[in-house]
Amino acid sequence: MKNKDFINKLKEIKTGQPDSEWVKRNRDILLYQVKAQQSSRFEMFSKDGANYTWSVFRLLFPTSFAYRLTAVVCLMLVLIASSSVTTTWADRSLPGDFLYPVKLTSERVQLAFTFDQESETKLQVEFAGKRLQEVEQISLGDESDVNKADKIKTSLNGYKKNIQQVKNDLEKINKESEPGKAAELASLVSKQVGDYSTVLGNKATVPTSDINEAILASDQVVDKSIDVVLEKYQQVGGTSVPVSPQELAIIFNKKAEIISKFIENIEVTIKAGKDLTASATGENKESVQKEAGDALGKFLVKLETAKNDFNKVKETFASGETITALKDIVNISSTVKDLQGDVYSFVQDLRNKVKVEMPEVKGEEIETGDSKNSQLEDLK
Q1: Which of 101, 242, 302, 362 is deepest in the core (most CB within 10 A)?
Q2: Does the model's pTM come out above 0.85?
Q3: What is the rounded distance in angstroms from the CA atom of residue 329 to the CA atom of residue 215?
Q4: DSSP readout, 112-170?
C-alpha cells in the first residue's frame, strides 16, 4: 500500500463510527474492572472493628512495624488490666513477701503524682498507718517465724520514716501555706498521729526499745502539729482558724495520753533499775548499789515534779484555758521525754555493770509487768 492510500484509510477511520456491539462489550469490561478496584479499596478502609485499624496501620507503617506496634498495644492493655489485681494483692503483703517491694513502690508513685503539700502530708500519714497495720499482722502471725522480729523492725523503720517526713512537711506548710489551711491540717495530723502513739503503746509483744523510738518520733510530730496550731491562732486569731474548741480538746487529750504513757514507762524502767541494783554481786557490790540508789532516787524526784506539773496543766485545761494548756503540755512533754531518755540510758549502763543473766519471757509478761523478769526484759 502506497503512502497516499494509507493516509486516506486513516482519514476514513477518523470520521467513521465504531461498531455498536464492540462498544457495548468493552464498556462492560471497563465498568467491571473499575467496580472491582473500588470494592477492594473500600474493603481496605472498612470500619468494621479491628480490620479498619489494621488497614490503617498497614497503610501508615511497614508491615513488620505494624505487627510490633500491635503487640506493644496488646501488652499495654494486658498490663493495665492486671495492674489493679497486682496492686490489691501487693497492698496485703508484709515485709519478706514477694510483693512487698511492689507495695512500697506503689506508695512512692502516689507521692510522685501528688503535687500539693497538704495532700502529700495526708498520704504520708496514711502510709504510716499502714506500717502499723503490718506490725499488728506480724505480731499476731506465726510464732514459729524466725524472722518475725526483723519483719516488725522493717515496718517500724518504715513508720518512723513516714512520720519524719510528716514532720518535715509540717515545717514547710507552716511557712508557706495559708494560716487556716495550715492549722486545719496540723490539727488533723495531731489527732491521727496521736492515735498511732496510743496503738504503739499497747504493742506489748514488740521490743520496748523499738516501740519507744516510734513513740518518740510520733510525739515529735504531735508537738510540731500543736506548735503550728498555736502559732496560727496567734497570727490571725481563733475565729479565723478552722479548728473548733472541740478539736483542740481532742488534741490536748491525745497529747495527755502520750505523756501518761511516757510516765508509765519511766516508772517501769526505774523499777527495773532497782531490781538490777538488788541483784548486784562481786567486790563492787556496795559501791554499785549506792551509786545506783542515789541516781534512781534523783530520777524519782524529777519524775514526781513532772507528774505534779502535768496535773497542773490538766487542771488548767479543765478550767477552760485550752490554748494555755496546750502551750504548757508541750513543755511538760519535752521534760518527760528527756527524763525517760536519761533513765533508760542509766539503767542500760547499770545492766552492763551488774551483768545479770536475763531469762527470756513472753510478751504478755511485759504487758502486765507483774514479775521481776518482765521488768528486766523491758531493758533488753
Answers
A1: 302
A2: no
A3: 17
A4: HT--SHHHHHHHHHHHHHHHHHHHHHHHTS-TT-TTHHHHHHHHHHHHHHHHHHHHHHH
